[in-house]
Write a structure and sequence with these properties.
- By secondary structure, the protein is an alpha/beta fold.
- It folds into 2 domains: 213 residues, Roll (Dipeptide-binding Protein, domain 3); 31 residues, no CATH class.
- 38% of the residues lie in helices and 16% in strands.
- The chain is built from 10 helices and 8 strands.
- The strands form 2 sheets. A 6-stranded mixed β-sheet has the order 2-6-1-5-3-4. It has a two-stranded antiparallel sheet with strand order 7-8.
- Strand 3, helix 5 and strand 4 form a beta-alpha-beta unit.
- Helix 1 runs antiparallel to helix 4 and helix 2 packs antiparallel against helix 5.
C-alpha cells in the first residue's frame, strides 16, 4: 500500500481539520488512473481490500472528493487558507513513478485553492532519517506486511514505538482496540475492533491511504497452478507450479 504520513506536531498540519481537508480533496481514482493505471487501485483504509477486517473508512467518512466540504472543514476550524506545506517523497525507493504521483497530488491540492503545496524529493538514505527525526510535515511512504492480517497494516504504523516514529498517539487504539483485536483467533470476530481502529484513523488522519498495488503473473499455456502461486502477502509460492496436465 502507499499512503501519506503526517508529523502531527508540525504547525502546518497539527490541526486535524487540515489533514481532514486534504483527505476530502485528494482524488485517488484520478491519481491511480494517471500514474499507475491497472497496476493499482484506490485505497480508502490502511487495511487493503481482500484482507479480512478491511473497511472503506475514508470513503465512508468523506465520500467523493469535494472542495466545498474541505473548505467548510477549514472554515469551522478557523484555518487561514491557502495552507502552505511541503509534500516529501523518496526518489529511489518506490520506483520512478513516485515523482509523477506527487506532482498529481500537488496539482489536486493546489487547484482547490485551499492549499499552497510544494513537493520535494530526496534519496532514501536521506529521506528515511529525516522522516524519523520529524523533519517532514507530510511525506509519502509504502508498506509491505510480513503476514496477510489486518494487524500487520495497523500496529506497525500506529502502536507504540511504531515504524514511522510518529508523534500521533491514540490511547484507544493502542491500549484497547489493538489488544482486543489480537485476542480474537477468528479474524472475522476481530472485525469490530479493526473497523473501530480504521474509523478513528479516518477521523484523526495521522495517515492518509492512497492506493494498493495489484499482483500479476504471466505464464505459458502448459504451466499449471498459477492461480494458487500468488498469495495475499505478496509472496510467490513456486511449489504450486507444474508443467502439463495433472492427474
Amino acid at each position: 500500500i502507499r499512503y501519506l504520513a503526517f508529523n502531527t506536531d508540525a504547525p502546518s498540519v497539527k490541526s486535524k481539520a487540515v489533514r481532514q481537508a486534504m483527505a476530502q480533496v485528494i482524488n485517488r481514482r484520478e491519481l491511480v488512473a494517471k500514474v499507475y493505471g491497472t497496476q493499482a487501485e484506490p485505497l480508502f483504509s490502511l487495511v487493503p481490500a481482500t484482507v479480512t477486517g478491511h473497511s472503506n473508512s475514508f470513503f465512508n467518512r468523506y465520500g467523493d472528493p469535494s472542495v466545498t466540504k474541505a473548505k467548510s472543514l477549514l472554515a469551522k476550524a478557523n484555518i487561514t487558507t491557502p495552507v502552505k506545506l511541503t509534500l516529501h517523497y523518496t526518489t529511489d525507493h518506490y520506483g520512478p513513478a513516485t515523482q509523477k504521483e506527487f506532482e498529481i497530488l500537488q496539482q489536486q491540492l493546489n487547484s482547490s485553492g485551499l492549499f499552497d503545496v510544494s513537493i520535494q524529493g530526496a534519496p532514501w538514505g536521506k529521506f528515511r532519517p529525516a522522516e524519523q527525526k520529524g523533519q517532514y510535515e507530510v511525506y509519502g511512504m509504502g508498506w509491505f506486511p510480513d503476514f496477510p492480517d489486518a494487524d500487520g497494516y495497523i500496529a506497525p504504523l500506529l502502536d507504540k514505538d511504531n515504524f514511522l516514529h510518529s508523534p500521533y498517539n491514540s490511547g484507544r487504539i493502542r491500549n484497547i482496540l489493538i489488544p482486543q483485536s489480537r485476542r480474537k483467533v477468528d479474524r472475522l470476530a476481530a472485525a469490530p475492533s479493526l473497523s473501530a481502529i480504521q474509523s478513528i484513523v479516518a477521523s484523526d488522519v495521522p495517515l492518509l491511504p492512497l492506493w494498493q498495488g495489484k499482483q500479476y503473473m504471466a505464464v505459458c499455456d502448459d504451466i499449471t497452478g498459477a492461480v494458487y502461486a500468488l498469495n495475499s502477502s505478496a509472496g510467490l509460492e513456486l511449489w504450486h507450479l507444474g508443467r502439463g496436465l495433472r492427474n
